Amino acid sequence: MAMAMHAKSDSEVTSVDQGLSPPRSPRRPVYFVQSPSNHDVEKMSYGSSPMGSPHHYYHCSPIHHSRESSTSRFSASLKNPRNPSAWKKIQKEPQSDDDCDDDDHEGGVFEGPCRRVRLYFFFVFLFLLLFTIFSLILWGASKSYEPKVFVKNLVFENFNIQAGNDHSGVPTDMLSLNSTVKLLYRNPATFFGVHVTATPFELHYYRLQLASGEMKKFYQPRKSQRAAVTVVLGHQVPLYGGISAIPSVRDHHEKVAIPMNLTFVMRSRAYILGRLVKSKFYTRVRCSVTLRGSKLGKPHNLTHSCIYH
């Protein structure tokens, strides 16, 4: 009887304890997120099912799955010290700039690749700027040393008018003329010489060209001068009645008086600093002279009969 009562009391105690203690929930399952492209399984979260259901694997849509897969791969690459490829890709570009900055700050003023490149371009630019300024100064200074041209005289050696035919067979008066022009050329420059050429020397009766000649080119050193002689010829030039005084004095050449104009352009070129800096000078000359049959072989003074511009 006593044993039954003791057993009863134990059962009662157990029932009382069960009634007093709260009901226990079943054991919570564990959830895993597995990346299909990575062989390593990373434990992402631990949780329990609110409904006390058996173990389940978490399934999601393809978009959500791809996002979490990329997140898990990125997290794994950051956590894994043996795979620093992600860090290399992120830090690749900023690292090069930081290197240049570190070289500039740590290496001083004249050290570091970036600093040397900048200094190189700076010195090249400075050299070009100074050279340009120096060249402009030389060019401007050369303009104050313009060469001087003076036509001294002109000599008509011979003069002849006769009847003839032109190249097409038209009969007309034909003129032949031989003359020489003497001029003085002066280079006043103190630091450069000049190369001198000229356009053809031409003798015109109004617009009718009667004679022409070429001057030989020459080089004139600094602070020097020379006299140049040019032959001006006209051979069998058809007149077509252009000179009204010719018929009346055809047989009396000593009575001939034909006004003419001598024109040419003197061109001077100075190479001041090689061919990099050069200066050009042009002098246009126009002289008035009268051909007189009575003064053949005698010089006609043209010192005050020429215009220079």
Secondary structure layout plus pairing:
Elements: H1 2-20, H2 62-79, H3 85-107, H4 113-142, E1 148-165, E2 171-187, E3 194-198, E4 201-205, E5 208-213, E6 218-220, E7 224-238, E8 257-273, E9 277-292, E10 299-301, E11 306-308
Structure description:
- This protein has helices at about 1-20, 60-80, 85-105, 115-140; strands spanning about 150-165, 170-185, 195-200, 200-205, 210-215, 220, 225-240, 255-275, 275-290, 300, 305-309.
- With about 300 residues, it is of the alpha+beta class.
- The protein folds into three domains: about 30-85, no CATH class; about 95-140; about 145-309, Immunoglobulin-like (Sandwich).
- The strands form two sheets. Strands 3, 4, 5, 6, 8, 9 and 11 form a seven-stranded antiparallel sheet that branches.
- The protein starts with a helix and ends with a strand.
- Residues about 1-20, about 40-70 and about 90-95 have low confidence and may be disordered.
- Keywords: Membrane, Transmembrane, Transmembrane helix.
- It comes from Juglans regia (English walnut).
- This is Late embryogenesis abundant protein LEA-2 subgroup domain-containing protein.
Helix-strand sequence: HHHHEEEEEEEEEEE
Please write the CATH class name of the largest domain: Mainly Beta
* Number of E-type strands: 11
Q: What is the CATH topology descriptor of the largest domain?
A: Immunoglobulin-like
Task: Tell me the count of domains.
Answer: 3
Quote the average pLDDT. 75
Beta-strand content: 25-35%
CATH architecture of the largest domain: Sandwich
Q: Sum up the overall morphology in one term.
A: elongated
Total helical elements:
4
Largest sheet entry: 7 strands, antiparallel
Proportion of residues in helical segments:
25-40%
The rounded distance between the terminal residues' Cα atoms is 157 Å
| Poorly predicted runs | 1-22, 38-68, 92-97
